[in-house]
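Hi everyone,

Forwarding the result from last night's run.
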Amino acid sequence: MKREDYNQCMRPYITGSKPKEQRKLDFCIGAKVCSSKAKNKEEAKQMCMLPKTPKLPRKSTRQKQKEQEACDPNVFFELASQFKDLYIDVHGERCLPCAELDNLIKEAEVPHQIVIIPESCAEIIDKLEVDAFPTVIKMSKGKIVARYVGNPADTIEKMKRGE
């Protein structure tokens, strides 16, 4: 649609001295109808009444730098070597089984220290030789003792038993 035609289509929706909220709704409805995203005014109104999805906050340079420092493999493995039993939960941000595993870990109250490593810590993940998400690695004094990949329920049971 040409810009002139779109403006002509929008004209009835942006005129008038209605309250601000009504004008915003009318503008949204007009935009949906005129851009053919909605077939009619009712469908456009339903689309405009949906709650807006919140935008994720942008990370500052300082926040990004802190995340990179937190993913330093030398620091991580030095700290990991100080624990007798340490479980390392490696997961992806958009991984549904990973989210399920995190919830199960919270509910199960596993009696050992658990560290969560996000997928953004690529160097640590590479050194741990993780191929799939979710992966839980059991370490003792800095050495890998066991590795659990896949099914969150099975992983939790093994963690509870200390395998």
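The chain is about 50% helix and 15% strand.

Cheers,
N.
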